[in-house]
């Protein structure tokens, strides 16, 4: 196993070499600490209750079943709780699953903290904010620039902390800001190839398209949909916010309506959640960039633990496909 698959983690006051959950293979035994991302109660065919636990560490997550759980277990093993588990990795329907041999809650003696188990964006919040601010600075249309700057400033703290989703893509601390930074860089490259694109509109669309998720989702830990998120959704939330911001700033004109259209159409189709299909160039490109970045993140995550010449687990959000890592990816370069 590569050194990159391992990390120094402080447990019980002792630095020991530990590998994250995504780097365990089927059949391997493990003994480690995890944070419970979610715990869902259900009833088995024998009539006994069990918990489905989504366990996470700094590298990723895995599902586990706690069979025959008691009321005490239900009260103890809840989301954001940190636990110590012994078990083994199995496979179920093409995905890795953790078979629990023993589980216990941690105490102060374990010397672990939530930050040890939370995955975060690979860039700092300050770095991401600087990059996004620079793109806003480059906007030449004053109306578009003012609305974008106003809304980003209004939600800045939550935006820099929030994940981009509860699962599937960029579902980690600061994932939303990282998603936006990656999309902005793609947008800039495409605009250089296609000069007919209005970069003010495209950059603003990238920054605003998912900003409503700061109200749709509950936050970076134990992320869930809020009541507002369930009833309205991030698209409706941000369309309304653009309208409110324009009134507050005294801005009138077509720019406001076009910005709202970018948000309304960024999912591409009605069946994918867009009230409108893209009807301007920048809206079409925004949809494609969003799709590219989300899917690249999902594929990269699924292939992190895969050895060359092997397939990943199935990715439900991508038509339940498994992805192959070609064996030549890690061959040394031959310049002869």
How are the SSEs ordered, and which strands pair?
Layout lengths: L5 E6 L2 E6 L9 E15 L5 E8 L4 E7 L3 H6 L5 E11 L2 E11 L19 H13 L4 H13 L1 H6 L13 H19 L5 H10 L4 H4 L10 H5 L1 H17 L4 H12 L15 H23 L33
Helix pairs in contact: 2-5, 3-6, 3-9, 5-6, 5-11, 6-10, 6-11, 9-10, 10-11
Describe the structure.
This protein has 336 residues and is an alpha+beta fold. The chain contains 11 helices and 7 strands. The chain has helices spanning 71-76, 125-137, 142-154, 156-161, 175-193, 199-208, 213-216, 227-231, 233-249, 254-265, 281-303, and strands at 6-11, 14-19, 29-43, 49-56, 61-67, 82-92, 95-105. Strands 3-4-5-7-6 form a 5-stranded mixed barrel. Helix 5 crosses helix 11. The longest helix is centred in the C-terminal third of the chain and has 23 residues, at 281-303. It is elongated and about 65 Å long. Residues 1-17 have low confidence and may be disordered.
- The stretches of 5 or more residues where confidence is low (pLDDT under 50) are 1-17
Number of helices: 11
SSE class: alpha+beta
Fraction of helical residues: 25-40%
General form: elongated
As laid out across the biggest beta sheet, the strand order is 3-4-5-7-6
What does the radius of gyration come to? Answer: 22 Å
Question: How many E strands?
Answer: 7
Instruction: Report mean pLDDT, rounded to a whole number.
Output: 88
State the end-to-end distance: 29 Å
| Content of β-strand | 15-25%
Order of helices and strands: EEEEEHEEHHHHHHHHHH
Biggest sheet architecture: 5 strands, mixed, barrel
Keywords summarizing the entry:
alpha+beta, 336 residues, single chain, two-stranded antiparallel ribbon
């Amino acid at each position: 196993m590569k050194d990159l698959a391992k990390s120094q983690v402080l447990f019980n006051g002792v630095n020991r070499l530990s590998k994250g959950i995504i780097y365990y293979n089927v059949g391997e035994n493990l003994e480690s600490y995890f944070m419970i991302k979610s715990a869902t109660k259900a009833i088995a065919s024998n009539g006994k209750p069990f918990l489905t636990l989504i366990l996470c560490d700094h590298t990723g997550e895995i599902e586990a079943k706690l069979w025959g759980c008691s009321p005490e277990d239900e009260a103890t093993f809840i989301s954001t709780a940190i636990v110590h588990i012994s078990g083994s990795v199995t496979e179920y329907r093409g995905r890795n699953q953790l078979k629990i041999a023993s589980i216990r809650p941690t105490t102060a003696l374990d010397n672990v903290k939530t930050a040890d188990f939370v995955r975060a964006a690979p860039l700092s919040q300050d770095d991401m904010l600087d990059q996004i601010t620079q793109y806003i600075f480059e906007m030449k249309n004053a109306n578009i620039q003012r609305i974008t700057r106003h809304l980003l400033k209004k939600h800045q703290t939550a935006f820099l902390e929030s994940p981009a989703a509860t699962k599937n893509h960029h579902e980690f601390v600061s994932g939303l800001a990282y998603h936006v930074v990656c999309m902005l860089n793609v947008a800039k490259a495409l605009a250089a190839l296609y000069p007919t694109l209005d970069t003010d509109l495209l950059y603003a669309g990238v920054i605003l398209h998912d900003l409503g998720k700061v109200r749709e989702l509950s936050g970076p830990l134990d992320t869930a949909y809020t009541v507002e998120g369930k009833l309205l959704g991030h698209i409706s939330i941000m369309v309304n916010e653009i309208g409110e911001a324009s009134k507050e700033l005294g801005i009138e004109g077509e720019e406001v309506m076009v910005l709202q259209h970018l948000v309304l159409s960024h999912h591409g189709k009605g069946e994918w959640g867009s009230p409108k299909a893209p009807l301007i160039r920048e809206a079409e490109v925004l949809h494609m960039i969003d799709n590219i970045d989300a899917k690249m993140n999902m594929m990269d995550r699924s292939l992190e633990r895969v050895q060359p010449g092997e397939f990943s687990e199935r990715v439900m959000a991508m038509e339940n496909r498994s992805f192959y890592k070609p064996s030549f990816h890690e061959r040394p370069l031959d310049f002869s």
